[in-house]
Specification:
- This protein starts with a helix and ends with a strand.
- The chain has a nine-stranded antiparallel sheet with strand order 1-6-7-8-9-16-13-12-11. Strands 2-3-4-5-10-15-14 form a seven-stranded antiparallel sheet. Strands 17, 27, 28, 29, 30, 32 and 36 form a seven-stranded antiparallel sheet that branches.
- Strand 28 and strand 29 form a beta hairpin.
- It has a domain of 225 residues: putative glycoside hydrolase family protein from bacillus halodurans (Beta-galactosidase, Chain A, domain 5), CATH 2.70.98.50.
- With 820 residues, the chain is of the alpha+beta class.
- Bound molecules: alpha-L-fucopyranose.
- Alpha-L-fucopyranose binds next to loops.
- The site of alpha-L-fucopyranose has 11 residues, from loops.
């Protein structure tokens, strides 16, 4: 037994060695120039900085998580309540266009369509005599969360290092050279805001103060202050009204703090200047090396939880922009690993407990009027940002999103009441820092009631991964409130024996047969969402032993929801009637919510629906916007088709402008909708994790979708439901060689693997029989599907897997190895 255990350790040891620090770098041999998407992102969930690495004019483009236009506001449209019966009747009569027109007039907000995430400004460092540099190099080390730029000028090597500290709330920059007295530059702030106040205030200190924009009738009241202070080793410093000059120093250290008056979505009473000063003062006297070590240690305590090694090739030896250009036509498996880890880096850098959730651009935006306001689109994009959180072992970084859901459950209560006469809470398809919940943009997009339903499922997901019952207690009212809304809002369809969401839509898509209108009743996604909202409320009430009668009433309603349907083209039907077009290549494939992130569609429990989902995916096609491709990686992983998932990764990791009619990736590996949207980065990161481990279908499924291109490798640290941690896993030729799994909660570990395995060390491995007794793996039963008479759907043949049960004890680690 000992021999095997040490074999396991040997594998682990080998593979840690396999993830060299060079595998964790984005690097380039050219500066960014004026292209923002070449610059490299740093962040600590509160401050975001894009580092250009330009030699003569270095730019740190700055963001702060609470710098949004507007101020506390609501955008409900109370006219909705009286229009609701007529809108419903028009839909039921098939007069979709008329329903949409009425909804535009009576339901869509007459107030703000959401506020904008805005930049703070730039810190610029001018080195006018450095134009003739040589041997240029810049990198972002995602193993340490530090950027570096180096070049040679007149035989002197210059180095710039920067990080946004995760432990101290400042951006830290160090400028140095390998000869004394060589550091000379001028520092100043710029800002795109109207009337920013930029001045030197105090010794070696610059201040940038501003106020965010008024927007759509809401007064901009977020006041912010950025402070930059520097210290030098030797040399001279002097200052003008708005800049600081350093001459002939040996080195210089600059720190930037940024703060605003934002306390919460309803309170802007903080003192931004005082806050910025407190943060700066606390950091400024610390030694640079101490700041750096504290930051790196904190970063690595999160980042190092997951190690991924797909092996490497010579293709990995060129600059990152060249790797990106080459990726789809060469063999560079390490690039997939880098992209996966970059997704985790971006989440750590843009989402920290106590801060705002990562928005459409994470925390990196230079535009005063960014696309879609860089806000939270909650009919997919904002949820996608958080798909990697639990599965890639960054559970506590889910917190800003989960807090936002809790806040929406407060603001959305009034929306449910005044707009729809319903109890509970709801949100439409967007929100912002003020937690608006009214319908925006126009009826085609905005008449979707699933924002509360979907976001609330993240609360449940966090519970399933952590088993934290006190957390469940605290969020139960939000789960219950989401269910209450639907319990009131559902209405009997006059032409079908079902309760339906009406009006609703299948986000942003419309069938031609509905007069090109998206507004509908009983879309498949709406049905799936209500099914999940009811199921999780029922289960939570059972676990917490409360509200039994309420849970029973939800069960009655759940049984009256429309079942999923398979249409005449063997597709999963998107709408209640079979009107899907196989030529429809729309980026949203919302009815596959039931396949991922939900688990209503399964090869084992609902084989026909699973097969129909594959046809839907094939009919919809691959190339699309960035986030759509990111979602498809997850779906093809759920299809257990690793090669198709890999094809989507290639489509996504294609330089922008090459994909016909679709997104791609920028040189800094930001995902392109286009323009930049971070959801695609996070979606693909989650998809890569889903190729290696899935846990939503009643078991921990190891290696469900390994492509030929990644047929051997090592991963450590991924998480499964029930708080199981895949401490390490090695696979070869797509077969499991060895896996060690730690059980943090105990309970039955049902495990699905591609080849026969045996257990070494403690425990007893048995062939699985019956239901998984582990509560975190319970999957509610959906109604049998309705299958069109014109369909000839057949279950897919996925090949054999092996299913085992292992009774685990809390805290213990179990080791499985290949049998033959
Ligand atoms: C939804 C999508 C768009 C875009 C926007 C932010 O409206 O349909 O593609 O991602 O959100």
């Amino acid at each position: 037994m000992k021999r095997f255990l040490s074999l396991g350790l040997f594998f682990i040891g080998m593979s840690i060695f396999g993830q060299q620090s060079d595998d964790l770098k984005l690097w380039y041999d050219e500066p960014s120039g004026d292209i923002w998407e070449n610059a490299l992102p740093l962040g600590n969930g509160r401050i975001g900085a894009m580092v250009y690495g330009n030699v003569t004019k270095e730019i740190f483009q700055l963001n702060e998580h609470t710098v949004w236009s507007g101020s506390p506001n609501r955008n409900d449209n109370p006219d909705a309540l009286k229009a609701l019966p007529e809108v419903r009747q028009l839909i039921f009569n098939g007069e979709y266009k008329a329903a949409e027109q009425l909804a535009d007039k009576m339901i869509i907000t007459k107030k703000s369509h959401g506020q904008m995430f805005q930049p703070v400004g730039n810190l610029e460092l001018l080195f006018p005599n450095h134009a003739n540099y040589q041997d240029y190099y810049r990198e972002l080390d995602i193993g340490k969360a530090i950027s570096k730029t180096t070049y040679i000028l007149d035989g002197v090597t210059y180095t710039r290092e920067a990080f946004v500290s995760l432990t101290d709330r400042v951006l830290v920059i160090k400028l140095s050279a390998d000869a004394p007295g060589k550091i000379s530059f001028t520092a100043n702030f710029t800002s795109p805001h109207s009337e920013p106040e930029i001045e030197t205030n105090g010794h070696n200190q610059l201040s940038l103060w501003g106020r965010t924009s008024d927007h759509e009738g809401v007064e901009g009241k977020v006041a912010f202050n950025a402070l930059m202070k520097l210290k030098t080793e030797n040399g001279l410093t002097s200052q003008t009204v708005s800049s600081i000059k350093v001459e002939n120093a040996d080195s210089a250290i600059l720190m930037v703090s940024i703060a605003s008056n934002f306390n919460s979505y309803k309170d802007l009473s903080a003192d931004e200047t005082q806050r910025a000063k407190v943060y700066l003062d606390a950091a400024f006297d610390k030694d640079y090396e101490v700041l750096k070590a504290d930051h790196t240690n904190k970063y690595q305590s999160l980042f190092n939880r997951v190690i991924l090694d797909f092996g490497t090739t010579d293709e990995a030896k060129v600059p990152t922009d060249e790797r990106l250009a080459n990726f789809r036509t060469t063999n560079d498996p390490a690039f997939v690993g880098l992209y996966f880890q970059y997704g985790r880096y971006l989440l750590i850098s843009s989402s920290q407990p106590g801060g705002q959730p990562a928005n459409l651009q994470g925390i990196w935006n230079r535009s005063m009027k960014p696309a879609w306001d860089s806000k939270y689109t909650i009919n997919i994009n904002a949820e996608m940002n958080y798909w990697p959180a639990e599965r890639t072992n960054l559970s506590e970084l889910h917190e800003p999103f989960l807090t936002m859901v809790q806040e929406l459950s407060e603001t959305g209560r009034k929306t449910a009441k005044v707009m729809y006469g319903a109890k509970g809470w709801m949100a439409h398809h967007n929100t912002d820092i003020w937690r608006i919940t009214g319908p925006i943009d126009g009826a085609f997009w905005g008449i979707w009631n699933g924002g509360g339903g979907w976001t609330s499922q993240h609360l449940w997901e966090h519970y399933l991964y952590t088993g934290d019952t006190s957390f469940l207690q605290s969020i139960y009212p939000a789960l219950k409130g989401a269910a209450k809304f639907y319990a009131d809002f559902l209405v009997q369809h006059p032409n079908y024996p079902y309760l339906v969401v009406a009006p609703g839509n299948s986000p942003e898509n419309a069938p031609e047969a509905h007069q090109g209108s998206s507004i509908t009743a009983g879309s498949t996604m709406d049905n799936q969402l209500v099914f999940d909202v009811f199921s999780t409320a029922i289960k939570a009430s059972e676990i917490l032993e409360k509200d039994g009668a309420f849970a029973d009433s939800l069960n009655v309603l759940r049984n009256q929801l429309p079942p999923m349907q398979i249409g005449k083209n063997n597709q999963l039907q998107e709408w209640l009637d079979d009107v899907d077009s196989p030529e429809d290549h729309h980026r949203h494939v919302s009815h596959l919510y039931g396949l991922f992130p939900s688990n209503q569609i399964s090869p084992y429990r609902t084989p026909e629906l699973f097969a129909a989902s594959k046809n839907t995916l094939l009919q919809r096609g691959d190339v699309s916007t960035g986030w759509s491709m990111g979602w498809k990686v997850n779906w093809w992983a759920k299809m257990q088709d690793g090669n198709h998932a890999y094809k989507l990764i290639k489509d996504q990791l294609t330089p922008v402008g090459i994909n016909q009619g679709g997104g791609g990736t920028y040189n800094n590996l930001f995902d392109a909708h286009p323009p930049f949207q971070i959801d695609g980065n996070f979606g693909c990161t989650s998809g890569i994790a889903e190729m290696l481990l899935q846990s939503s279908d009643g078991a921990v499924h190891l290696l469900p979708a390994i492509p030929d291109a990644l047929n051997s490798g090592y991963v450590g640290g991924l998480k499964a439901r029930g708080d199981f941690e895949l401490v390490s896993m090695e696979w070869k030729d797509k077969k499991l060689v060895i896996a060690t799994i730690q059980s943090h909660l105990g309970g039955n570990l049902r495990i699905r693997v591609p080849n026969e395995v045996t257990l070494i060390g403690q425990g007893t491995l048995k062939k699985a029989v019956g239901k998984n007794t582990n509560v975190f793996f319970e999957v509610p039963k959906t109604a049998d599907p309705i299958i069109s008479k014109e369909s000839n759907i057949k279950p897919l043949d996925l090949g054999d897997t092996y299913l085992y049960d292992l009774a685990t004890q809390k805290g213990k680690i179990y080791t499985l190895i290949r049998k033959n």
